[in-house]
Amino acid sequence: MIHLISKKIAALATVCILLSACGQLQSEQEKNNKVTSSNTSITAPAVTEPASNADPSNTEAEAATDSPSKTIQEPEANETEVIPEFQYHINKAYNVVPNEEGIDKKVVLLTFDDGPKEQEMVNGLLDTLDKHQAKAIFFVNGYRVKANPDLLKQIHDRGQIIGNHSWDHIDLKKENSDNARKQVEDVQQIVEDTIGERPRFFRPPFGSGNENLHKIAEDNSLIYMTWSNGSLDWDSKSKNKPEVVIQNVMDQLHNGSNILMHELPWTVEALDELLSKLEGQGYSFVDPRAISEAPKEQ
Ligand SMILES: [Zn+2]
């Protein structure tokens, strides 16, 4: 009798173990299913990168530091994201125009200058851009990147585009050639050191440039632009008045508007409504990665 009971207990225990193991397996499976896409990016780089990487000395460090951040920063949306083909260029009036007939002209380019400054403002801009599935150029200053490298990484990791706005935000027209070049090239370097790629776009502070600055931009494969629609968010009349920022942009709105904004609290506040209004009027937001060099005949 005792023997029989102990056998039953043993059988029950086995069932319990099997069941709980099964439960664990199932929940593991569920977890795996949920993170399948990011799991592939955990394992894939660690296994395949060293084999294909041209510089073996860096591979281990890269695999070790890159993989975790990739898995955190790469939501599923990025997996299907396709980098657009070149469809637009910046013309001499600094508008965004199609490279060919048949491409949508009713577009605007969103730009934010003078950051990255503060986490809260950067979050606000990034969240609103995401909400509207919009891409923008963040024209950054080198001294700000040096102070806030993590903010630059966040902007980049969330799919926005980094532009070069010189190191110190000084009037480059007043600098000698060597200083002006250093102001531009030091930013190219710190951005590459921070996010792994160099900016493709350059905007001089105050829109103040000359032949020499155009040459420096060209030497660095930078697409040069000022803007064609100033939100005047920097002006004292706009301070704490998001509605004024919105109105200024809407008053100047035209096809290909290259909209100048800044990392400022009232601009952050204005952005959601501004983007809704632009969409409401039928404009879409150019992905800066679709902007190429201007055709040579220009
Ligand atoms: Zn500026």
Name the features.
binds zinc ion; six-stranded parallel beta sheet; alpha/beta; 298 residues; disordered N terminus; three-stranded mixed beta sheet; 10 helices; globular
Describe this structure in words.
Helix content is 52%, strand content 13%. The protein has 10 helices and 11 strands. It has helices at 2-52, 56-73, 76-79, 119-131, 142-147, 149-157, 177-195, 211-219, 242-251, 265-280, and strands spanning 88-90, 96-98, 107-115, 136-140, 161-164, 201-202, 223-224, 229-230, 257-262, 284-285, 291-292. Strand 8 (229-230), helix 9 and strand 9 (257-262) form a beta-alpha-beta unit. The radius of gyration is 26 Å and the shape is globular. The site of zinc ion has 5 residues, from strand 3.
Mean pLDDT: 81
Terminus-to-terminus distance: 99 Å
* Biggest sheet details: 6 strands, parallel
Q: Secondary-structure element order, as H and E?
A: HHHEEEHEHHEHEHEEHEHEE
Using only C-alpha atoms, the radius of gyration works out to 26 Å
The hetero molecules present are: zinc ion
| Subunit organisation of the chains | single chain
**Annotation field: number of helices:** 10
C-alpha geometry: globular
Structural class: alpha/beta
DSSP strand content: 5-15%
The count of strands amounts to 11
Residue share in helices? 40-55%
Query: Residue ranges: pLDDT <50 for 5 or more in a row?
Result: 1-75
Summarize the structure.
The chain is of the alpha/beta class. 52% of the residues lie in helices and 13% in strands. Helix 1 packs across helix 2, helix 4 (119-131) runs parallel beside helix 10 and helix 9 (242-251) packs across helix 10 (265-280).
